Automatic annotation (TrEMBL):
UniProt subcellular location: Cell membrane
Phylogenetic classification of the source organism: Bacteria, Bacillati, Actinomycetota, Actinomycetes, Pseudonocardiales
Entry keyword set: ATP-binding, Cell membrane, Ion transport, Iron, Iron transport, Membrane, Nucleotide-binding, Transport
Residue stretches spanning the membrane: none
Recorded GO MF terms: ATP binding; ATP hydrolysis activity
KW Cell membrane (keyword) present: yes
Source taxon at top rank: Bacteria
Protein name as it appears in the record: ABC transporter ATP-binding protein
Domain AAA+ ATPase, first and last residues per copy: 45-230
Claim: Transcription is one of the keywords in the record: no
GO annotations of cellular component type: plasma membrane
Length: 257
């Protein structure tokens, strides 16, 4: 059954910009941030919210900023992770106000597909601390560096993610095969029904099929629309290409100039 806020979701109910923080430069010039500045905020689903949109709309930057504002390490991991290899995050997290729900998450994780290698290295380092309990069981019992990227990520969501958690994922499909995306879809649905909340930036038509999820589609002009699954751009484009690939190929390879 799809939970509602009273069932334990809604750890972060909405986000908005600190008044007067818009400088007109990056990251405030990104379409999704312009939307926040213009409208006053964005509501999140108490269960699963997807951010969909083309490259450059700012969805990954927004997920990262919400993670930072919620207390997660900018490079990923749980709230207890405090390592840093190279500071690439934007300043947006310092300019967001999170409206939080009554309940606090018991656990949580921020995953950036591009920096999971660094997270895996930190997991190994922490596991070697003789004064601390072993972490490896929470990640499948095997070092993430000894598994493929996709396998280690599925180990993470299977063994480390648990009930009553807040999970922020940036394009997790980058690590996964289509079959892996289906496994992740099933796990997200299971965790959502265990009082978890997810915010996910994605291009995957498979992941977008999580039942009951809120899909927020961002366009290049800074508009955000709540769309049904069948109307989400990754779904319509993929479905169209698979149905008539020759039409798309003809369009792509024809020189109209």
């Amino acid at each position: 059954m799809h939970q509602d806020e009273s069932a334990g979701g809604g750890f972060v109910q909405s986000i908005r910009l600190v008044p007067g923080s818009d400088t007109g430069r990056y990251p405030f010039a990104l379409p999704v941030v312009r939307y926040l500045a213009r409208t006053g905020g964005l509501a999140l689903d108490p269960g699963v919210t997807f951010l969909a949109g083309d490259n450059g709309t700012g969805k990954s930057t927004l997920v990262e900023a919400i993670a930072v504002a919620a207390g997660f390490n900018p490079e990923g991991g749980s709230r207890s992770f405090r390592f840093a290899t190279r500071a690439t995050e934007s300043s947006l997290g310092d300019h967001l106000i999170l409206r939080r729900g009554i309940r606090k998450p018991r656990t949580g994780f921020f995953l950036r597909a591009e920096s999971y290698y660094n997270v895996a290295t930190e997991i190994e380092r922490l596991d070697q601390d003789a004064g601390s309990p072993s972490l490896m069981a929470a990640y499948g019992g095997i070092s993430p560096h000894e598994r493929s990227h996709g396998q280690s990520f599925l180990d993470l969501v299977t063994h480390r993610f648990g009930p009553d958690g807040l999970y922020l994922l940036d394009e997790p499909e980058a690590a996964l095969s289509p079959r892996g995306c289906m496994a992740l879809l099933a796990r997200i649905t299971e965790l959502r029904d265990s009082r978890c909340q997810f915010l996910i930036a994605t291009h995957s038509p498979i992941l977008l099929a999580v039942p009951g999820a809120r899909i927020l589609q961002i366009d290049g002009e800074g508009e955000i629309e709540h769309v049904a699954y069948d109307n989400a751009e990754p779904v319509t484009l993929t479905r169209g290409f698979l149905t008539h690939p020759e039409r798309f190929l003809h369009h792509l390879f024809t020189d109209d100039g």
